[in-house]
Amino acid sequence: MPKVVREDIDALNAMITVIVEREDYEPDFKKELNKLKDKGAIKGFRKGKTPLPFLKKMYGKGLLSEIVSNVLHKELNELMNTKELTFMGQPIPVQDQKPVNFDYNSEEPYSFQFELGKAPDFELKGVDKDTMYDYYKVQIPDEKVEERLLSARKHYGEQVETTGPILEDDMVYFEAVELDGDAPKADGWKTTFSVLVNRLTEGATKDDIKSKQKGDKVRFNVFELEEGAKPEFVKKYLLNFTQADIDEGTETGEMYEGTIEKVTNQAPAELTQEFFDKVFGPGEIHNLEEAKERIALSLGGSHQGQADSLLYRELRHRLIELNRGDMPLPNDFIKRWLKVSQEQKADALINDYENFADDMRWTLIKTKLSNQYEIEVTEEEITQMAYNKVAGYFGGYADPKYLEPIVKRMLEDPESFNGLAGDVQADKLFYKMKENIGLKEIPISEEDIKAKYDAVMAEEEQKAKLKQGASHSDEEE
Questions:
Q1: Which residues are within 8 A (CB) of 169 and not within 5 positions of it... i.e. 6 or more apart?
Q2: d(Cα 12, Cα 254) in Å, to the nearest integer?
Q3: Are 117 and 88 in contact (CB under 8 A)?
Q4: Which of 111, 137, 258, 366 is deepest in the core (most CB within 10 A)?
């Protein structure tokens, strides 16, 4: 087993020496060499009869390099995954390390040295009930609550005949006849239908209808009566053509005269317990005040995602600010690591190093909290997250049987799967933090929270574009 020696230079930097002895790589070296012998067809030798010394001479150096590298990487991965310490970035070879001469005849061990950056040991501040964070609570105007309540009452109400002025919410019933010029057409088409006033095409005809009452006559183009109605709809639902009429090619003129037979309005349901049970569920609401409170809560809840997003951003900002002084980073190591690992992006990241360093601090904070809260992610939660995301692509409404193949592909792709797992963990971590901090509710209007949320999203988008632009500039150079 390779020997791994760690030398702590200071609290944030360490040196790792990995010593690979012959016994650590020789079994695999011989195994791979024999595979070459069994499978290889070398000119001048029969298959499987190539002498091992010849194979060593031809392939030994490259094969040994690959096997030793695999042993080395395995040891480094085990080191990086240890729970005792958290490291920053990945190990990078020391600057003055000499090139390794791989010689399969040598008995000398191979020695490799790496620099490591260690994460700071810190006590997290700011996640407790004594630390208060602003949490926006949307105030719903009384008139909007009344409007939603009236809509529910009308939905569960009954149609009643009215004799007053015709209003937008009224239903008008017509008995109509086809016209020939200014007079009813002999043997013309006759029909009866009803239409909601608020679905009538804006213009003179709608104004004329609203000025009439029961028994009055109105002339109109039946194919232009309802806003956006297609000829097929008009024939079927206004003219009452049967399928046989349509199949036989029955036609009619456009102009009709309609007599208003009656006008009805959806009378709002009474505020009874039966109504409350239908709207809010059995036994949930018992009076008007409770109903209004529930409606206001429901309308405000539609903005909770925006409020949570603003809180999350504030949490990130405040926790970094509160803990930055106790979270020194191995800055010199990180910058060298960026130059080795990022190459084209390194200069841009180093130029914006303070923000990059804060990103790393935020990662450390989240890791510490995830361990503290013992947050675990299940496959069921990842699958549900995938369904939620895909459903979102369809506006939140889609038959599960259409979503299933897309979700299946997402879950089978390792990168996508890991991304979904990260999203689940981030959500669970946020709500756990939210439970453990003090929240100061700040009343806010719907318009103002939308403006704040849009401003934050625009700022984040601008930052992303700047990072992307810097990355492209590096690639062009």
A1: 154, 196, 197, 198, 265, 266
A2: 85
A3: yes
A4: 258
* Angle 425-427-433 from CA coordinates, rounded to 5°: 100
Asked whether 207 and 246 are in contact (CB, 8 A), the reply is: no
- Give the pTM: 0.69
CB atoms within 10 A of CB 413: 12
CATH of 3-118, one of 3.40.50.720, 2.60.40.420, 3.30.70.1050, 3.30.70.1560: 3.30.70.1050
Q: Where are the alpha helices (DSSP H) in 177-264?
A: 204-210, 231-233, 243-248
What dotted CATH number matches 158-267?
A: 3.10.50.30
**CB 130 within 8 Å of CB 120:** no
C-alpha 410/C-alpha 382 separation (Å) is 10
CA distances to 297, 305, 308, 391 from 138, in Å:
9, 11, 12, 26
Work out the burial of residue 117: count CB atoms within 10 Å of its CB; fewer than 13 is exposed, 13-18 middle, 19 or more buried: buried
**Closest alpha carbon to 160 in 152, 151, 169, 148:** 169
Note the pLDDT tens digit of each residue in 165-183.
Answer: 999 989 999 999 999 999 9
Query: How confident is the model over 103-142, as pLDDT tens digits?
Result: 888 888 999 999 999 999 999 999 999 999 999 999 999 9
